[in-house]
Amino acid sequence: MDFNNNNKRNELILAIDIGGTSYKGALVNKNGEIIYRYKIKAADYGSNEKFLLTIFNLISKLSKKTKLNNQKIIAMSFSVPGAIDTDNGIMKYSNNLKLENLNFKKELIKKYNNLPIFMLNDANAATLGEARKGIAKNYANVVFLTLGTGVGGGIIINHKLYAGSQFMGAELGHMSIDINGKLCTCGRRGCFEAYASAKALVNYTKEGLNKYKDSKMWDEINNDINNVNGSVSFEALKKHPNDLGAKEVVTKYIRYLSEGILNYCNIFRPDIILIGGGVSEQGDYLVKLINDYCKDYNYGFKSTPIPIIKTATLKNDAGIIGAAYFALDNLK
Ligand SMILES: [Zn+2]
User: Is 52 within the bounds of a domain?
Assistant: First the structure.
């Protein structure tokens, strides 16, 4: 494998987004553009050896492309799920991959010892990607929230990723909004994640369906409660703005979500809040509801700027592009 030709043009970052079911690799140029991509099925869970072999295989597939096009890989960067020691490149714990204390960077250096290697947590990578190349690219201060099974995200301050001590901060889903509230997987009560995730929205929808037997939400699920997903209440309300059940579910969800967003506004006062994950599919409809709620409770009222709220744009590429920018930032 030739990483060392002297061509200064077309310098590329080899970036890999490690997910639970697949590993997405790409060659990314210095403008954050993906010029080649390759996806590989995830290795069997729980085996360090198989994990590493699969990653090496993906790296080999990607690097072959550079030979053909006379390009040069100047660094490798990885978006990794779970707890990761970014400075030392140790994957401490990944529930998704069933890996524990894997010295990933050391293994990579053994094989590719002439290349700088970087890695960061997947939520931080996605945040950096969205902030640099997505819709937030012209803003210095960004809070990115992903509303999926859980609530994740990240923080950008003055164009730079803020992840706290040992990259362990920015756990945006684990801010309590009710100290007597629901027990969270983290051990505390009332975490934002338990109220504003897509999973929470599904639960509110099921409660609403059971309470309002004549709700138009039933039409969205063909009268089968097993068909409920995060879009049911929103779709029903768009079509039937006076539907009591759909209105109650959406109002409840928007209230919890917006109260959390107001907390982030009061702490960070970002220029923009980006919303990603499954719930963000509701786009401008969702944004308007949040804005309508937040304007009434904005700290300092008219004297304080209300952050712009938008839905994220890079979707599945955010992690790869963010990993590439993390390498570019740290190479300087
Ligand atoms: Zn929690």
Answer: yes
